[in-house]
UniProtKB/TrEMBL annotation:
PANTHER family: LIPOPROTEIN-RELATED, SIGNAL PEPTIDE PROTEIN. Residues 1-19 form the signal peptide. Gene3D superfamilies: Immunoglobulins. This is DUF1573 domain-containing protein. InterPro entries: DUF1573, Ig-like_fold. It holds the Pfam family DUF1573. Keywords: Signal. It comes from Cesiribacter andamanensis AMV16.
């Protein structure tokens, strides 16, 4: 019985090693972000926030971003349309307009590409405070 259990464990470890090696040598583009969330803190209603998410193609083939999707019209993306070569970095600029928004915000941006990790997500988070009236001074 011990030999059977030992044989099964050895077989399991062999499969795990092969799977890990395959993942490590998988060819193709790979998108890796420096950060996946930006907290803009407290802002006043109507303020605009811009943030740049920097990413690197850590894969072995050119990376092509086909789309950058936002959760609402208050968030606008700008992304590179040209392929990003292996080892190179690029940026996605996100602009958030807080007009008409209040309270805690979590704006998720989905990046669609030809990478082995075809969909990645980044987020803008923060808090919208009521607009202060300058006439009350």
């Amino acid at each position: 019985m011990k030999k059977l259990i030992l044989s099964c464990l050895m077989l399991l470890f062999a499969f795990a090693a092969v799977a890990q090696e395959k993942a490590a040598t998988e060819k193709g583009p790979q998108i890796t972000f420096q950060e996946t969330e930006y907290n803009f803190g407290d802002i006043q209603q109507g303020d605009k926030v811009e943030h740049i998410f920097t990413f690197k193609n850590t894969g072995t083939a050119p990376l092509i971003l086909s789309n950058v999707l936002t959760t609402c019209g208050c968030t606008a993306p700008e992304w590179p349309k040209d392929p990003v070569a292996p080892g190179k970095t690029a940026q996605i600029k996100i602009t958030f307009n807080s007009a008409g928004k209040m309270g805690k915000q979590n704006k998720v941006i989905t990046i669609v590409s030809n990478a082995t990790n075809a969909q990645e997500r980044v987020a803008l988070v923060g808090n919208i405070l009521p607009k202060q009236n300058a006439d009350l001074q």
